[in-house]
Amino acid sequence: MVEKQITTSKGTSLDEAAVQEFKVSIRGELIKPEDSGYDAARKVWNGMIDKRPALIVRCTGVADVISAVNFARANKLLVAVRGGGHNVAGNAVCDGGIVIDLSRMKGMRVDPAARTARAQAGLTWGEFDRETQAFGLALPGGIQSTTGIAGFTIGGGFGYLSRKYGLTVDNLLSVDVVTGEGRLLIASKTENSDLFWGIRGGGGNFGIVTSFEFKLHPVGPMILGGMLLHHLANAKEVLRFYRDYVAKAPEELSLFLGFVTAPKAPHLPERIQGTPVLAVIICYVGAIEEGERIIQSLRKFGPPEVDLVGPKPYVALQSMLDAANPPGWQNYWKSEYLKGFSDEAIDTLVDYAAKRPSSMSKILMGHLVGAVNRVSDDETPYSHRDAPFIININSMWSDITKDEENIKWAKDLWNAVQPFATGGVYVNFLMTEGADRVMAAYGKEKYERLVALKNKYDPTNFFSLNQNIKPGKR
Ligand SMILES: Cc1cc2nc3c(=O)[nH]c(=O)nc-3n(C[C@H](O)[C@H](O)[C@H](O)COP(=O)(O)OP(=O)(O)OC[C@H]3O[C@@H](n4cnc5c(N)ncnc54)[C@H](O)[C@@H]3O)c2cc1C
């Protein structure tokens, strides 16, 4: 019998016997290009990414991860690491290499008395919240329930709870990490503390995190939240009001903004369905009556076309935007931190919101002032803690013949907001934008510290498919 061979990204061949030996050694699943599940398994959230790995290994535990790393190293395979597959840059998959897919690793244990959780790297935020909310606990996590906790956390991570409780990494207690040599290390403030520093914003550069230990906070299960929808024609006045209001808002109150198109959903009045709106997204995590009092003036201003704010389960708020971000669409992002909302910045944003070539495109803005700023900047690689706002320009469309105009809109708006930007960027919102942008995520000093860590923990750049910190001279 002639043995089948798989060609790798490096032009070398993997023989079937070696692959078979690897397959029987693992507890998880090994998917090859000829397998029926291959096309589904190589898809990531961003539909623009169309890569064909030589192998996809769905690990079930640390032992599989170690075997996969050792197999990849022995066979000189390019390695991609997949958590939730949400990253817009699409580095969770690769051409001709091996995808180490952790999405089956969904174990989780909450200690309600200690208010901590140990979570495996394949969980999504929806799954994580389900477990913690059983005890009225939560962690600052993503604002979409389908995002993976792993890629999210190692870039920093922020959400509706961040004003009150900081970034996700500010609540990280320890991690289990498999290095490129296939060794398992525990990293915390007291053990491998340099690695622990690097993991809190340095992304997947140093190893594969197989599980995270987090500190949790009392939240919910019911909170006050939802959104106010204002017609785009009124957005400039609303943003000027928001600018002043948010400066005095307590940290229990988180206010995100989104220029979106109102969906054709039955809970919305017909007159607003399909029209461009400014959504003011509200999450209040204190006593509900107190929250009602605090948001009164915000609710009245305009008034909004639709008021969807009220007491609701925290998990409902956490999945409120899921339908607006379905998987498989073409996506192109540009992001920046903003110094604030000057009148000029507001005019620019509203003008570009009106020019969105696709109704699925969005301009999202998060207000991060609070606990995030109280952690000193050198505590983590995650940087720009003093920036009050972050903007994420999400171009999203389905017609692949319209790539150019949709990408151009995002780039043009990004160029137009430069005068209002701090110059920093959030690593988790980067596409493949080059070394300067990775440097902009950290600043020169921290970047050099990350290079030193890379030299120590991954000197061969085994983990290269990420916002890459290249080993080498500092
Ligand atoms: C719809 C949507 C909403 C979002 N909302 C938010 C938000 O509210 N706040 C926020 O901060 N960010 C948000 N993000 C950005 C998000 O933080 C990143 O996309 C993040 O990388 C997603 O993690 P993942 O595990 O799903 O991604 P993946 O694509 O699986 O992983 C991203 C990268 O992380 C690395 N990686 C993944 N898992 C591991 C691991 N276990 N060990 C080592 N390296 C690993 C790999 O390099 C991989 O390429 C959002 C993204 C989307 C698409």
Care to describe what's here?
This protein is of the alpha+beta class and 474 residues long. It is built from 16 helices and 21 strands. It has helices spanning 16-25, 38-41, 62-74, 125-133, 149-155, 162-165, 193-199, 235-248, 288-294, 296-300, 314-318, 343-354, 371-374, 403-417, 435-442, 444-457, and strands at residues 5-7, 13-15, 29-31, 55-58, 79-82, 98-101, 108-111, 116-120, 137-138, 172-178, 184-188, 208-215, 217-218, 222-231, 253-261, 276-284, 306-307, 310-313, 330-338, 362-367, 389-397. Strands 14, 15, 16, 17, 18, 19, 20 and 21 form an eight-stranded antiparallel beta sheet that branches. Helix 8 (235-248) crosses helix 12 and helix 12 (343-354) packs antiparallel against helix 14 (403-417). Residues 44-45, 81-88, 91-92, 102, 121, 142-144, 147-148, 150-152, 154-155, 157-159, 203-204, 208-209, 325, 428, 465-466 line the site of flavin-adenine dinucleotide.
Task: Provide keyphrases for this structure.
474 residues, Uridine Diphospho-n-acetylenolpyruvylglucosamine Reductase, domain 2, Uridine Diphospho-n-acetylenolpyruvylglucosamine Reductase, domain 3, five-stranded antiparallel β-sheet, binds flavin-adenine dinucleotide, Vanillyl-alcohol Oxidase, Chain A, domain 3, alpha+beta
CATH level-3 fold name of the largest domain: Vanillyl-alcohol Oxidase, Chain A, domain 3
Bound molecules: flavin-adenine dinucleotide
Chain-averaged pLDDT: 96
Shape: globular
Q: Please state roughly what percent of the residues sit in beta strands, choosing from under 5%, 5-15%, 15-25%, 25-35%, 35-45% or over 45%.
A: 15-25%
As for the number of domains, it is 3
Given helix and strand content, the structural type is alpha+beta
| Beginning-to-end CA distance, first to last residue | 52 Å
